Amino acid sequence: MKSVLVTGATGFIGSRLVSALLEKNYSVSTLIRPGKNTDVKAEKIVGDLTDSDLDFEGKSFDCVFHLASCTPLEKDSKVLEKVNLTGTKNLFEAINGKTKSIIYISGLGVFGEPGDKVIDESAPRNPNTKFVSIRLEAEKYLEKKCSENGIDFSVVYFGDVYGSKGWFYDILVKRLEKKSFRLPSGGKYFKGFVNVDDAVGSMIAVLEKQAFGESFIVADSEPALFKDFVNFTADQIGAKHPGNVPTFLAKAVLGSDLVKLLTTSMKVSNKKISEIYSLKYPSYKEGIPKVISEIKENESLLQK
Fold this sequence. Notes:
42% of the residues lie in helices and 19% in strands. The protein is of the alpha/beta class. The chain has a domain at 3-162 and 192-220 and 267-280: NAD(P)-binding Rossmann-like Domain (Rossmann fold, 3-Layer(aba) Sandwich), CATH 3.40.50.720.
């Protein structure tokens, strides 16, 4: 039985990863902050990445999945550095010599503004926000330290991960239902979406296929206009198509980094990850109906 550690295990993607790993009979440990809870079948290790005394005494892992991170909603650059960069350094110091491999999770923002070109993993990293610059610095730190210490390393760049929780539910579905969602810049920019089940499946595939020393873009097989994605979601829940909002107003509410990441057009190829993992939902048109069904089921259970 392989032993793995998951950071960010209480988040939407991390919690789904923990459940999937347990279903595949992995021995799963989760690093969570005091007062938080995760799957009862996983071993809970209480700790904080920002603690320089973070310790995993007596523990060893075949792989560490590092998902823990502040989101682009965090506007304080000092907090971003403390969690996303210093926290990553603290994690490495704590697990060095105690793990065989590390899989680091990042996003497509590392590629900056590639324009209309369809990019793959060979594209230059050229982040255009403070949030992503810090994340890339953390990635480079891990890559260097893993190389120096004989630890296998890979990085996975997710597109916009949608599912029954997280931004898709809280920001999109809820606001569409309340008629309060607006499309920044009219939604006329391409994005690489990915269903959370495929995000989780791809991470596990990297481990099981021992695809280390690599980077992988994980996104749908075809880029989609954000406007089309939103309108399709609205149709699925019987809501009206939303109107538009000027970019400057969106930045005032959500913050400059998040809006820039959201409105930057991004066309990517998933050819490389497809060589080791077959997407269950190659398009949002297959994935969103499944997610909406799951949301309705969750809401029904809450009403009982």
